[in-house]
Amino acid sequence: MLRMGDRPGRPGYDRKKLLLYAIICGCRRQIERMLKDLPTLFNTIEDFLWFKLSALREYTNASSSNLMNEGLVPYTLDDLQSYLNKFEPSYYTKNGKDPLVYPYILFLSIQLLPAILYLSKEVGEDGYHVDAVHISIALADHSVLPDGIGSGQKIGVMDACAEAASIIRQYGSIYLRNGNIDLALEYYAQAAAAMGGGEASWIGEGHADKQRQRSLMLKQLLMEILLRDGGIQLLLGPSGMGEEGELKKYMMDWRSRQQFLLEAAHRCQEAGLYDKAVEIHKRVGAFAMALQTINKCLSDAVCAMARSMLDGESRAAALIHSGNEILETARYSSEASIQEKDLISEQQTVLRQLEAILHIYRLARAGQTVDALRETIRLPFLHLDPKAPNVTVDIFRNLSPHVQACVPDLLKVALNCIDNVRDTDGTLRAVKSKIANLVASNMSRNWPQDLYQKVAQCI
């Protein structure tokens, strides 16, 4: 029916009619036969691919069975993808001379994820990886990635979302490393949305598992930004728990924000970012926890000062000032519970004990050994009063670990002061004896060896 006179004595085909018939019937056998008989039918890959796309048929099981009975095997998207994937990318790109042809082929054959993965791995001045990022955002936002995984790809639905999210996240991390946290936040939010399946995840219409994965990734990425310089200001604003910052966009419930910030503060403490931990605890009203961090840092600074480190005293003074500010804020806070107030009171006691130790070190440094020794004896938790009876007391039972850390250096300072003061009435001998008993009863604590040597010399 389709034959026509091409040349005298040689049969031919009406190619337009032949193509139309193949497209209408969508029969795999007819299409393959036509391409075999007429290998030069198409001049470009693009023409060939559009023909293939036009001939695609997707049937239900029932209609497909009827066609099979009639001898018509439909040409499906899987058939097209399998055929295209037989060739290496270099076949389409002419060994890199035309790099966009291969991803173009993948996009047209609805192999969306392989296409963006290919673009994301391209390097060079053309910046195709940037295209991959924004195409990933568009595809993920419209929730087409899960349904657009190519034939033969061993990737699950969530894996496709995770791949797109990873591409977007990596791009956002470039801005984060360069200090542009505003843009990093935008891309990080898009990455979390991609992980959750797109726009539907933001409005609560997505699958529960996708919602969970989006939430987990979003918290992780927001944490990265919060811990960067300027992150607290960006996410939380000038005050509060994010009501005036960007965090409210992503966590509208204040309890969610509070829990997130408490986790962030804990992460800061683990990373040694104590100033950020204190600031975050203050924002959520966890004043006792903020004071505890202040006391930990103050203890380190006091110990540094005892070891003649130059930054110890200035650091300690700044920490005491911060601690006093927290106490003042907590005093007028209406949100602090009775339990929180008790915890604040405990930390205030620790702060004052550390402040007293710092004062002793300052006196000793200034050469005021008598005053330094007098203040040391007055410390109630050491029990060094020479007039008090000698009793065995576990001074560490109720003593904060932050104060405990300062005791060995404090005892050495006291012994050095005794060496420089004349004992006229035996008082200093009694103090030495109490220090020796204190050290002897705490041998299991493995205090510095020079303290033991100093005690041995004084006995």
UniProtKB/TrEMBL annotation:
<dbReference type="GO" id="GO:0017056">
    <property type="term" value="F:structural constituent of nuclear pore"/>
</dbReference>
<dbReference type="GO" id="GO:0005643">
    <property type="term" value="C:nuclear pore"/>
</dbReference>
<keyword id="KW-0813">Transport</keyword>
<keyword id="KW-0539">Nucleus</keyword>
<keyword id="KW-0906">Nuclear pore complex</keyword>
<protein>
    <recommendedName>
        <fullName>Nuclear pore protein</fullName>
    </recommendedName>
</protein>
<dbReference type="Pfam" id="PF04097">
    <property type="entry name" value="Nic96"/>
</dbReference>
<dbReference type="InterPro" id="IPR007231">
    <property type="entry name" value="Nucleoporin_int_Nup93/Nic96"/>
</dbReference>
<dbReference type="GO" id="GO:0051028">
    <property type="term" value="P:mRNA transport"/>
</dbReference>
<dbReference type="GO" id="GO:0015031">
    <property type="term" value="P:protein transport"/>
</dbReference>
<keyword id="KW-0811">Translocation</keyword>
<keyword id="KW-0509">mRNA transport</keyword>
<keyword id="KW-0653">Protein transport</keyword>
<comment type="similarity">
    <text>Belongs to the nucleoporin interacting component (NIC) family.</text>
</comment>
<keyword id="KW-0472">Membrane</keyword>
